[in-house]
Amino acid sequence: MAKKATSSTSKIFVLDTSVILYDHHSIMNFEEHDIVIPITVLEELDQFKKGNDTKNFESREFIRLLDKLSKDQMIQNWTPLNGKNKGSFKIMMNPENKLNANEIFGEEKNDHKILNAALSLKQTETNRKVILVSKDINLRLKAKSLDIAAEDYETGKIKNISEIENTGKGIIDNLDNEIIDDLYEKGNLTGARVFGKRKKNLPENNTFYILKGLESNASILAFYHAEQNDFSKISKTKAYNISPKNAEQAFALNAILDPNIKLMTIQGVAGTGKTLLALAGALEQRKDYKQIFLARPIVPLSNKDIGYLPGDIKSKLNPYMEPLWDNLKFIQNQYQETDKEYQRINDMINQEKLVIQPLAYIRGRSLSNIFFIVDEAQNLTPHEVKTIITRAGENTKIIFTGDVFQIDTPYLDSQSNGLSYLIDRVRKHPLYAHIKLEKGERSELANLANDLL
């Protein structure tokens, strides 16, 4: 099929495999511009199509989408994308170029074949801008060294990470001491009473506050319900003998124990108590749920599959699950071995009332009547986070914990990971709460490392 005449303002985007494994629908997100898929990308996707991981799902879905779009056409030619004001796409065979990335970089690699596709388009499509789109930073740098425009895939990316940094908490000071005293005594106050003239700047749903009076020693922790427009007092309560050690931890535990909050995110650096508080809160509410699931994504060392590790499947997975077991053991050690609370944890594990597993083992299950904790959620894609939440059935609570600045997967960053995406998209919903833990409570030595190293 011949391509219709195209405006010189229309761009050509060359997609890398990393973009498609991040979002199989990415080909549809470039408005009126045209898309080129190098044949090397299809070859790489073929290697990912088998398996139960998210990248395998993305690969399969993209291949099905191309098949649907191509119909009976030869997709080496420009093929229209379905939808109003959409461009076209085509598959590009390995070209012959004057400039050859394999020779320039001294090695034959698939990345260099993709660069060669972009170089060829620059030579033949002289009146249009050619842009390589990749989640791989190094590939973008190589492209720029060859004078090829290169960009990250922006769809789903948080534009301003600072906007979500302090979502969920705030400070209101210079309040009349009478307001602080009344909240202590009554437990609840209307929003109008607390905000006063600040009323026009009402916060989002489910926000935690430190309320401070005119006197230096007058303060109280409170939770603002936007739907009811009222404040409720927060007390530093224990959960399975774990006590909050600072205001943010008290906020977090309050939300963990609140049955009206069905979805929660806890952000913070290592040692701030994210997973510990979530697990302690889950154990405290064990009678309200059928099971407690703790899961985390597996990010293998050197990005190799865990099949490279020795031993059976349990031996391969144990190193990745060890931090979760450490938190559980810490909670258990708050009691004597003869205490019923200590033995109860062993019983829950033996009866599979408390299950610690890789996240891949949880996918596809129906999550009804479950308290679900997802650790290291910053290593998930937005699609993975959405997939998890859409599995939630009746009486299920999901808590995502992580640090958006500590990414272990190569194609995610602080703005494109699933945890940041989730915080940004749902922060105004009444079923949701978020808190950022800032103070490390692991030990003075751990705090020294976080602060000075």
UniProtKB/TrEMBL annotation:
<feature type="domain" description="PIN">
    <location>
        <begin position="11"/>
        <end position="141"/>
    </location>
</feature>
<dbReference type="InterPro" id="IPR003714">
    <property type="entry name" value="PhoH"/>
</dbReference>
<dbReference type="GO" id="GO:0005829">
    <property type="term" value="C:cytosol"/>
</dbReference>
<dbReference type="Pfam" id="PF02562">
    <property type="entry name" value="PhoH"/>
</dbReference>
<dbReference type="InterPro" id="IPR002716">
    <property type="entry name" value="PIN_dom"/>
</dbReference>
<dbReference type="GO" id="GO:0005524">
    <property type="term" value="F:ATP binding"/>
</dbReference>
<dbReference type="InterPro" id="IPR029060">
    <property type="entry name" value="PIN-like_dom_sf"/>
</dbReference>
<comment type="similarity">
    <text>In the N-terminal section; belongs to the PINc/VapC protein family.</text>
</comment>
<keyword id="KW-0067">ATP-binding</keyword>
<comment type="similarity">
    <text>Belongs to the PhoH family.</text>
</comment>
<dbReference type="Pfam" id="PF13638">
    <property type="entry name" value="PIN_4"/>
</dbReference>
<dbReference type="InterPro" id="IPR027417">
    <property type="entry name" value="P-loop_NTPase"/>
</dbReference>
<keyword id="KW-0547">Nucleotide-binding</keyword>
<dbReference type="InterPro" id="IPR051451">
    <property type="entry name" value="PhoH2-like"/>
</dbReference>
<protein>
    <submittedName>
        <fullName>PhoH family protein</fullName>
    </submittedName>
</protein>
